[in-house]
Amino acid sequence: MFERLPDLKRMLVIAECGNLHAAAQRLNITQPALTRSLQLLEEQFGGKLFLRQPRGVTLTQFGEHVVNHTKHILRECQVAEAELGTLLQGEAGTLKMAAAPVWVSYLLPPAIVAAQKRYPAMQIHLLSMDYADAMPRLRNGDLDIFCGGFTSEEMLPSFLARKRFFQARMHVICRQDHPILRESPKDLEKLLDYPWLSYQNDWGYLDLAMERIEARTGRRKSASVFCETIIAALIMIQEGDYLSYLPDNFMRIVPGFNLRTVAVDMPGDTFHSGIIFRRSLEQNRAFQTVVAVVDEMIKRKMDPGTRGFSL
User: Fold this and answer.
1) Which of 147, 149, 162 is closest to 294 using CA atoms?
2) Is the pTM of this model over 0.85?
3) Residue 6: which domain range?
């Protein structure tokens, strides 16, 4: 497969363009030459990579698998080249990162600044993305690192590794002088007297709370506000009568908000938050810097006795 790297790169361009003529123009080669490259790949793999359509080409199911594996292989080659280059000219190359909003807004910026200062030749790309969207891109090589909440029991491919930084617990939260704070924690009915805010597109957060409330009361409530921006969500919770079901780390990591947890008689859901990354980055010094700075920031915000967020 490695002797066909130029042909594999051409295949990716065909997949992106969906048209042999457009792909040949982008690659600055003739269409017959591109067609021959594709034929050689299909002969080597023993299967069709594309379906020829009247107005272009589309990947076969087999072709989709080949494209995903190719992206992974090419990314590993890039990481290896960057690592070898480090021996000659210092840390260089590219880190492609995706992260959940709290990480993007508050944990990663200082870490990226520190890494960039130490290794100015390193180029870093940062995207806001959730776990479900990031995992396929980690597997196919479009991403190197994901930072955020994850299901620790999920099996990872051998080329990916996981590092936990903290455990977050879900709580019903509100502003510090919310009238709900004067109610009995066992009276879950009272939670339904106030409007609810659902943060991000994680309907699952609110659904978890409502499932528990409904099991005890026979009733549930839909959100009055759906918000995809963390700052806007916290401002509305602080300024209004909204309740929300959110990870406790929001109140520790995000500065400038006076929010409280509501003492309710129901179990709190927990999940781990940390990073999932390509194992080939373990010796990358820019990556090591990012990890070290984030780890130090989190330690300063956590109760050292419990390694959990103190509220």
Assistant:
1) 147
2) no
3) 2-68
